[in-house]
Automatic annotation (TrEMBL):
Pfam families: PepSY_TM (PF03929). Keywords: Membrane, Transmembrane, Transmembrane helix. Residues 262-283 are annotated as: Disordered. The chain crosses the membrane at residues 20-45, 166-183, 379-399, 428-457. PANTHER family: IRON-REGULATED INNER MEMBRANE PROTEIN-RELATED, PEPSY DOMAIN-CONTAINING PROTEIN. This is PepSY domain-containing protein. InterPro entries: PepSY-ass_TM (IPR005625).
Length: 465
């Protein structure tokens, strides 16, 4: 019996991209929209915090900075009165004149990787207040709130599936869209219309022009945000971490072991997911004077940045650590472990020790957080996020405008691209799809769901007609 399959067509790939772009945008669009809008706010959150928490962050005294011991004692007295039972776990000296020192305490009931920071004027040791802070970035309550909403919608691990789905599909939808944009280059009469909206047309064509032009401008930002956002995700993030570990692309960490303790492991997300040493010694005794002594040792061991954090050990068999935490360009990430018994540096890591891919990951994450280039970085992220949100809105508007007279929804692009593809094309698509599903499990599950819904809708539509 002769085959009824259609012959291979040269236009199958563009048709496949269009169908994928439409289906993914239709189903994942709301998640991308929420992630983009919350991400837009998160992008400028550091600047908002400088205004919202000006009292805590500003040190009015013009006197010379007092020793860290005096500042830690002032913070401890404040905590004893307002939050008894808290234990000092970190000190971040004021990085510049007019700024406060953060003395940070562990406290029951706070989030993982969250501490309570007491803000001390280094000139007169006046306590300017206390606030919960989160992670290496030292996010204050506003940024922590918007970050949690952006990452999980306050739904815990279940909510993280939303952001992982949005981040995973954002890059795929963007690449499919730019592929369609490239196909238009050959037949576009005015190349200008590929990057600027054509306001001479109306209706669907005008919306399409705005959608395509906006996509061309935000493509790199969308792919970048997708790639760096995936590193924070649950399933795909674990795969990326395992891959980097297998290829020795992880960030190095100082060895804090004294007398046989296991060293701590570090990484770009250490401040986001917690971390620490496996220890077995007795509880360490920490005095305020040690903070000055340890910092002095670190200053002789290539720790020169103003932005540092000093962390005392929890047990006697681990060392103190002093780490540079300058996230802006040029970054400063040197770290040293100090033996409190001898007051000598016992382990050291510098930025030059980072593998190339670990450096790239660190710089990418700092950029995603709006920290690497300061306010310009934040404004670019804001524009990129708003552009992504606009593309989602334009996409749904186009779908509505494509509806037939009397129809409730718009028409979808034609199906059946793979049936028209040559054998090597179908094989390549399957291989790429399987690879993406293995690296990005959420993509695999949702793609299967898309195909199932698409098959049911297509079948039902044919029977109705």
């Amino acid at each position: 019996m002769p085959s009824t399959a259609p012959p291979p067509s040269r236009g199958w790939f563009a048709q496949l991209l269009l169908r994928l772009h439409f289906l993914a945008g239709l189903f994942v669009g709301p998640l991308i929209l929420v992630a983009a809008l919350s991400g837009a706010v998160y992008a400028v959150a550091p600047t908002i915090e400088r205004v919202a928490y000006q009292h805590e962050l500003t040190a009015p005294s013009t006197a010379s900075a007092r020793p860290l011991a005096d500042q830690v004692e002032a913070a401890q007295q404040w905590v004893d009165r307002h939050h008894p039972g808290d234990t000092v776990v970190e000190v971040r000296p004021a990085p510049a004149a007019g700024e406060t020192t953060r003395v940070m305490f562990s406290e029951a009931g706070l989030l993982e990787s969250q501490t309570r920071a007491v803000f001390v004027d280094p000139g007169d040791t006046e306590v300017r207040g206390d606030l919960p802070v989160y992670g290496t970035s030292g996010s204050l309550p506003f940024r922590t709130w918007i970050s949690t909403f952006h990452r999980s919608l306050f739904l815990g691990d279940v909510g993280r599936l939303y952001s992982e789905t949005a981040a995973s599909w954002l890059g795929i939808v963007s690449l499919a869209g730019i592929g369609l944009w490239a196909f238009r280059i050959r037949r576009a009469r005015r190349k200008r219309d590929l990057v600027l909206p054509d306001n001479r047309v109306t209706g669907y064509r005008r919306t399409f022009s705005w959608h395509a032009a906006t996509g061309a401008w935000v493509l790199l930002g969308a792919v970048f945000l997708s790639a760096t956002g995936i590193t924070w995700s649950h399933f795909a993030g674990d795969n990326v971490t395992a891959l980097r570990s297998a290829l020795s692309w992880q960030a190095p960490a100082v060895d804090t072991a004294l007398g046989g303790a296991m060293p701590a492991m570090g990484g770009e997300h250490a401040g986001h997911h917690g971390g620490g040493s496996t220890t077995s010694g007795a509880a360490a005794t920490v005095t305020p004077e040690q903070f000055d002594q340890v910092l002095a040792v670190a200053r002789t061991a290539d720790v020169h940045a103003a932005e540092v954090r000093i962390r005392p050990p929890a047990t006697t068999d681990t060392a103190w650590t002093v780490e540079e935490i300058k996230l802006s360009w040029p970054v400063a990430m040197n770290a040293v472990a100090v033996d409190p018994g001898t007051m000598t540096a016992v382990s050291q890591v510098t930025w030059s020790d980072y593998p190339l891919m670990a450096k790239a990951a660190k710089l990418g994450i700092n950029t995603h957080m709006g920290a690497l280039f300061g306010l310009p970085n934040q404004l670019v992220l804001l524009l990129a996020a708003l552009g992504i949100a606009a593309m989602v809105v334009f996409g749904y508007l186009m779908w509505w405008q494509r509806r037939a007279p009397g129809a409730r929804v718009g028409r979808a692009p034609a199906a059946g691209a793979l049936a028209r593809a040559p054998w090597w094309g179908t094989t390549a698509v399957v291989v790429v799809a399987v690879g993406l599903a293995l690296l990005l499990p959420v993509v695999g599950v949702t793609l299967l769901g898309f195909l199932l819904v698409d098959a049911l809708v297509t079948t039902f539509g044919r029977r109705t007609r």
